[in-house]
Specification:
The protein is an alpha/beta fold. The chain has 2 domains: 7-59 and 393-447, Urease, subunit C, domain 1, CATH 2.30.40; 61-382, Metal-dependent hydrolases (TIM Barrel, Alpha-Beta Barrel). 37% of the residues lie in helices and 19% in strands. It is built from 14 helices and 17 strands. The protein has helices at residues 89-100, 105-121, 147-159, 191-203, 220-233, 247-257, 261-268, 285-293, 302-307, 315-320, 337-352, 366-382, 411-420, 447-464; strands spanning 10-18, 21-30, 36-41, 57-59, 61-66, 124-131, 162-169, 207-208, 211-212, 239-243, 275-279, 297-300, 324-327, 397-400, 428-433, 436-440, 443-444. A 5-stranded antiparallel sheet has the order 4-14-15-16-17. Strands 5, 6, 7, 8 and 9 form a 5-stranded parallel sheet that branches. Strands 10-11-12-13 form a 4-stranded parallel sheet. Strand 11, helix 8 and strand 12 (297-300) form a beta-alpha-beta unit. Helix 2 (105-121) packs parallel to helix 3 and helix 4 (191-203) runs parallel beside helix 5. The relative contact order is 0.16. The structure holds N-carbamimidoyl-L-glutamic acid (NGQ) and zinc ion. The site of zinc ion has 6 residues, from loops.
Length: 465
C-alpha cells in the first residue's frame, strides 16, 4: 500500500521527455526537499486529482556559465571603435572591464535578480555563476569578504533559480605570471582568501565550487594549491575554467609552454568529471580525445562565442569522442536555452554544409537529442542533482506552451519548433524549480519589479562610464 499522493508534490504529464525519449501518461512525485521520488507511467484515470501539465514536459535546463553583471552591458559594445576596424574579443574586454569597474553590491544584486527571472522564463532552472567581481572599485576587500557572492545568492534565492556559485581565482594578466592590470584589481585573491569565500558560500547552505579563471590568470602552483584546498573542503565540488577560447590565447600558451592550453591542463591537473572546461573552442583531435576520456564537461556558450568572434566549437568531434557538454549564456547577449542549442547546431551546419548534424541514431529528432544532452551535461557541471526527469533529480521542469503557436503538433514537433522555429520564451509556458512553480503562463511574479530595478542600475552605471 503506497501513501496517498500530496497534490502539491505531484504532477501528471500526458507527454514527458524522459532520458530515453518521449513517454506517455507520466506521473512525477517529489518529496518535501523537491527531489523526485517517483517517475512512472500510469493509467491517467487513476490520477484525476493530480495537477496536469498544460503541455509537453521537459527537464529544466542548467545554464552552466554565467557572469551575471555582464547582462547590464549586453548589446552596448556593438559599434566599430573609432579609427580601428580591428575590434576583437580583447577590445570588447577593455570596454567590459570599464563597465565592471564601479558596480556596487546593490547593483549586482539588482542586475542578477532580473537576469535570473529572465533565465527562468527562458527555460533555465539552474545557473553556475563564474564570479570574479570580488572587491570594491579600488580593489579593497569588503567588510564581508564574500559580499558580492552573497548578493548573487540572494538574487538566485529571490528569483527561485538553483545556483552553483564558483568564486574565481584571478591573479595574473597573462601567461608567465604577468602582474595583474589596474582594471583587474577587483578580481584578485590569494588561494586562502578565495577558499574563505567558498566557506562563506557553503555556510549559507549553497552549492559552491571554484573557478581558476584561465591559464592566463592562474599559474601552475596556484592551480595546484587551489584544487588541493578545495578538496580538503569538499572533494566533490565542481571546478570550472575558461580554456582555449581565442586563437590568440592558444598561440600565447604555446609560446609560453610549448603546449596548447587543453593539452597543458590535462598534463598539469587531475582533470576528471568534476571539471567543466568552458569554451574549449580550439582543440585539436588529440586534445578532444584526451579531454573526453577524463569525463570533463565542455561548457559551450554559442551566443557569446559568436558575439565575441571566438570560433566554432567542433561539437561533432566532441560527440564522436562521447564527450559531455552543456550550454551557458555567459555574457548574456542572449538569455534563451533554445537559442543556444539552435546556434550550436547552426554553426555545425554552416561549417559542414549539412543538416541535422548533432542528431543521433538513438535520438534522430535533433531537438530531443540537444535538449537531453545539454541538460545532462549541464547537470554534471552544476554538481547538483538536476537535469533529468528521473528519480533522485530535482523536480525542475519546463512545460511547452501548446495552446498558442505550437498547437496541433506532436511533442517532438513541439520541442523542435521551440528550439528551431520560435522566439524561445514565447513557447515556454510553466517552469518549476525543486517542485515549486516559478513561471506561470510565461509570467514570473517578480518580472515587473525586477526589470525596473535592473534598468535603474544600468542607467546609473552608464552615467558613470
Ligand atoms: C570573462 N569572458 O571573464 O568575463 C571573460 C572575458 C577573459 C569570456 N571569456 C575575460 N567570454 O577571458 O580574460
Ligand atoms: Zn566566461
Amino acid at each position: 500500500m503506497t501513501a496517498p499522493l500530496a497534490p502539491n508534490r505531484a504532477l501528471f504529464a500526458a507527454h514527458a521527455l524522459l532520458p530515453d525519449g518521449w513517454a506517455r501518461d507520466v506521473l512525477l512525485v517529489w518529496d518535501e526537499t523537491g527531489r523526485l521520488t517517483d517517475v512512472r507511467s500510469v493509467d491517467a484515470s487513476t490520477v484525476a486529482l493530480i495537477p496536469r501539465a498544460a503541455g509537453p514536459l521537459i527537464a529544466g535546463m542548467p545554464n552552466l556559465h554565467s557572469h551575471a553583471f555582464q547582462r547590464a552591458f549586453a548589446g552596448l559594445s556593438e559599434y566599430r571603435s573609432a579609427g580601428s576596424g580591428n575590434d576583437s574579443f580583447w577590445t570588447w574586454r577593455d570596454l567590459m572591464y570599464r563597465f565592471a569597474q564601479s558596480i556596487s553590491p546593490e547593483q549586482l544584486q539588482d542586475i542578477a535578480t532580473h537576469l535570473y527571472v529572465e533565465m527562468l522564463q527562458a527555460g533555465y532552472t539552474s545557473v553556475c555563476e563564474f564570479h570574479y567581481l570580488h572587491h570594491d572599485a579600488s580593489g579593497e576587500r569588503y567588510g564581508e569578504p564574500a559580499e558580492m557572492s552573497l548578493r548573487l545568492l540572494a538574487a538566485a534565492q529571490r528569483a527561485g533559480i538553483g545556483i552553483t556559485l564558483l568564486p574565481v581565482l584571478y591573479q595574473n594578466a597573462g601567461f608567465g605570471a604577468l602582474p595583474p592590470r589596474a582594471d583587474q584589481r577587483r578580481f584578485i585573491n590569494g588561494v586562502d582568501g578565495l577558499l574563505r569565500i567558498v566557506e562563506r558560500i557553503r555556510a549559507q547552505g549553497a552549492r559552491a565550487g571554484v573557478a581558476p579563471h584561465s591559464l592566463r590568470a592562474v599559474a601552475q602552483e596556484a592551480l595546484a594549491e587551489l584544487v588541493s584546498g578545495l578538496n580538503s573542503i569538499d572533494p566533490t565540488a565542481p571546478i570550472h575554467v575558461h580554456i582555449a577560447e581565442q586563437a590568440q590565447e592558444v598561440q600565447d600558451c604555446v609560446a609560453w609552454s610549448g603546449q596548447r592550453p587543453v593539452q597543458w591542463l590535462l598534463d598539469h591537473a587531475a582533470v576528471d568529471e568534476r571539471w567543466c572546461l568552458v569554451h574549449a573552442t580550439h582543440m585539436d583531435a588529440a586534445e578532444t580525445r584526451a579531454a573526453a576520456a577524463t569525463g570533463a564537461t565542455i561548457g559551450v556558450c554559442p551566443s557569446t562565442e559568436a558575439n565575441l568572434g571566438d570560433g566554432v566549437f567542433d561539437a561533432v568531434g566532441w560527440a564522436a569522442a562521447n564527450g559531455h557538454w552543456g550550454i551557458g549564456s555567459d555574457s548574456h547577449a542572449s538569455v534563451d536555452a533554445a537559442e543556444e542549442l539552435r546556434l550550436l547546431e547552426y554553426a555545425q551546419r554552416l561549417t559542414r554544409q549539412q543538416r541535422n548534424v548533432l542528431a543521433s541514431a538513438r535520438h534522430p529528432q535533433i531537438a530531443d537529442q540537444l535538449w537531453l544532452a545539454s541538460a545532462s551535461g549541464g547537470a554534471r557541471a552544476t554538481g547538483r542533482p538536476v537535469g533529468a526527469l528521473a528519480v533522485g533529480a530535482q523536480a525542475d521542469f519546463v512545460v511547452l506552451d501548446v495552446a498558442h503557436s505550437l498547437a496541433g503538433l506532436s511533442p517532438p514537433q513541439a520541442l523542435a519548433n521551440h528550439v528551431f522555429a520560435s522566439h524561445g520564451r514565447n513557447t515556454v509556458r510553466d517552469v518549476w524549480v525543486g517542485g515549486q512553480q516559478r513561471v506561470n503562463c510565461g509570467r514570473h511574479a517578480l518580472e515587473g519589479a525586477a526589470c525596473e530595478r535592473f534598468v535603474a542600475a544600468r542607467s546609473q552605471l552608464l552615467r558613470e562610464v
